[in-house]
Design a protein that fits this description.
Blueprint: E1 4-13, E2 20-30, E3 35-39, H1 46-53, E4 61-66, E5 69-70, H2 76-86, E6 87-91, H3 102-112, H4 117-130, H5 146-159, E7 164-168, H6 176-193, E8 197-200, H7 204-207, E9 212-217, E10 220-225, H8 227-231
Parallel strand pairs: 3-8, 3-9, 6-7, 7-8
Antiparallel strand pairs: 1-2, 1-4, 4-5, 9-10
């Protein structure tokens, strides 16, 4: 059974007469351990798709299943618990709390879920070491570089031991050196730790690190396959992102 499934997903904003169709019948399945990149021009629906895959938004029609559980069958509270326990989120803007240290930021979702203090501490140190940020565990976000903040954000997402890591433009605010480091970290998480990852990116270099690439255009899946084959297809060169 796939970790994640989307079946005939449509998303309409506004009324039928004056509405905008952000997604028009998206179908996809993500297997355990896959690292999937999603690309597409501005307005193609890729970010909308990610929020629906994460259960943050509901599709107008169609369904999304995480580990076989249909989001539509859950109450709002049940969806919140499922996201908190089974989904790790990484954002372009890091979303770290400025008054908490790196370790405290990583610990927060575990504490909110009622995990015992000893277990929280153990998990925090483990994931901070995994992202090479253990030596900065007592630092506030303002004292960290953008790349370091993103690695702390990834550690926070990993601390819950998610079935699926969703990353929305995780290198969008980073320079080329830090971007490369974060990209290699995500690649290692997939290859060495079997972490399932779905990532939206506009950067072809980042997308090449994935094991699979889905190209979205006009709310539909246009291509789905090996990144190198899609990125360098003659008819698609220069068209992935405005």
């Amino acid at each position: 059974m796939p970790i994640l499934e989307a079946q005939d997903v449509f998303k309409q904003y506004g009324t039928s007469d004056a509405g905008v169709a952000a997604l028009r019948g998206v179908n996809l399945a993500v297997e355990a351990g896959e690292f999937v990149a999603i690309m597409g021009p501005s307005g193609s629906g890729k970010s909308t798709l990610l929020t629906i895959l994460g259960g943050v938004e509901e599709p107008t029609s169609g369904c999304v299943r995480l580990e076989g559980v249909n989001f539509a069958d859950l109450s709002e509270d049940e969806r919140t618990i499922l996201r908190r326990r089974r989904l790790g989120f990484v954002f372009q803007s890091f979303n770290l709390l400025p008054n908490l240290t790196a370790e405290e930021n990583v610990a927060l979702p575990l504490e909110l879920d009622g995990i015992a203090a000893g277990e929280v501490r153990q998990r925090c140190l483990q994931v901070l070491e995994q992202v090479e940020m253990l030596h900065r565990k007592d630092h506030l976000p303002a004292t960290l570089s953008g790349g370091e903040q993103q690695r702390v954000a990834i550690a926070r997402a990993l601390a819950i031991r998610p079935a699926l890591l969703l990353a929305d433009e995780p290198t969008g605010n980073l320079d080329s050196r830090q971007s490369s480091r974060v990209t290699h970290l995500l690649e290692d998480l997939s290859q060495s730790h079997d972490q399932t990852i779905v990532m939206v990116t506009h950067d072809a270099g980042v997308a090449r690190s994935a094991s699979r690439l889905i190209l979205i255009r006009d709310g539909q899946v246009e291509r789905d396959g090996i990144p190198e084959e899609i990125l360098f297809a003659p008819e698609l060169l220069g068209t992935q992102e405005d």
